[in-house]
Amino acid sequence: MSLAKKFVLWVVLVATLISGSFGAFNYYSEKRRLLDQLERSADRASARLLNVLPQALYDFAIAQAKKALEAEMANPDFAALAITDKDNKVVAVKTRDSSWTPVDSSELPGEPANISKAIAYGEGSAAEQLGTLFVYLDDRFVNEQIRRTLGTSILHAVILDILFIVLVGILVRLLVSRPVRSISSMISAIAGGDLTQEVPEELLQK
What we know:
alpha+beta; 4 helices; rod-shaped
């Protein structure tokens, strides 16, 4: 392998390592950001529900409680929302069917909830425990975004490598290959007996 080709190869390897490092950093940063965003979204939904559910459960307005759950299920990151009473009996459950549409259920999901919050009516020591709110998250949409981020990072790395290959190839051709061919041609002419050859001034300066 020629010196020029080795040089191009090393430059491409370095460029690949640099772009790969930046790509990995962007991937993990985006993953952490999306997961944090999911957690914050769940916390905000829990806070909104806890503003509505205490009064609904105290008044035995189960339809109102279900309506509140259904409204929050507009967020596709929620796999299920559930309410149990103070005796841990199911009051209302909103889960998903196979097409990810919110549906009513009479049972809690089988997996553990990501968030559980006590539902209390009143404040301080006089607060009455009415039940528990359960929030079940699903990260499928977050993972889809993460995969897209990874694909974009890989594409950027490939494009960067191609640009480096083209750029370095042009530079090597202009700064190395052409002067070397000129010198080789001159040496061959001198070896053939042509002593009138002159070394160009730009080559002497290099």
